[in-house]
Write a structure and sequence with these properties.
Blueprint (H helix, E strand, L loop, with lengths): L12 E2 L3 E4 L2 E4 L2 E2 L3 E3 L5 E3 L6 E10 L12 E10 L8 E5 L5 E5 L8 E3 L6 E3 L4 E3 L5
Antiparallel strand pairs: 1-4, 2-3, 3-7, 5-6, 5-13, 7-8, 8-12, 9-10, 10-11, 11-12
Pfam families: Mss4
Protein name: CBN-MDT-9 protein
Keywords: Guanine-nucleotide releasing factor, Protein transport, Transport
Length: about 140
C-alpha cells in the first residue's frame, strides 16, 4: 500500500450521515480533493463528485504482476469512494479479470486497478490508496 497518500478518510472526505448496508459501513461522503493517476497525472475524478465512502477492505489485483505465476496476485486495499454515475469520472476505463469482475483503471495510461464495480449495486468504487491528490498552487 502507498504511504504517500494522506491519512484517510478524514483528509479527503466530508462526513455526513451513515448507513449499514450488507454488513459493510457505507457513509454519505464526498471527496474534498481532485484525484489523479499516480503514473500519468491524468485527472480521474474531480473533487466533490463522489457520493459515499465504503470503509472496508477489498482485494484488488496488484498493479504489477510477477511473471511466471499462474494466478492473479492481489492485495487488500481499504477505503473506497462510491460513484453511481460513471459520467461523474473525468477519465476512467474498465477491465475484466478472468473470474468476471470489473475493475476501474486510469483512462489514459490504463494503470490500475484503481477501483472496482460492485456487480450487485452497479456502484463504481475508487480508492484514494491507488491515486494521488492534485496539488493546487497557492
Amino acid at each position: 500500500m502507498s504511504s504517500s497518500s494522506p491519512s484517510l478518510p478524514s483528509a479527503l472526505t466530508q462526513p455526513s450521515a451513515s448507513q449499514q448496508q450488507d454488513n459493510n459501513v457505507v457513509e454519505a461522503r464526498t471527496n474534498e480533493s481532485t484525484l489523479i493517476c499516480k503514473i500519468c497525472q491524468t485527472v480521474v475524478i474531480l473533487k466533490n463528485m463522489t457520493t459515499e465512502w465504503l470503509d472496508e477492505e477489498r482485494e484488488l489485483p496488484l498493479t504489477r504482476q510477477t511473471k511466471g505465476i499462474d494466478h492473479t496476485q492481489t492485495e487488500l486495499v481499504k477505503g473506497y469512494f462510491g460513484v453511481k454515475d460513471i459520467f461523474a469520472f473525468e477519465n476512467v476505463g474498465f477491465t475484466r479479470s478472468a473470474d468476471g469482475k470489473k475493475f476501474l483503471v486510469c483512462g489514459e495510461c490504463e494503470e490500475g486497478p484503481v477501483g472496482f464495480v460492485d456487480p450487485n449495486t452497479e456502484m463504481n468504487y475508487v480508492t484514494p490508496e491507488r491515486l494521488d491528490v492534485l496539488q493546487t498552487s497557492v
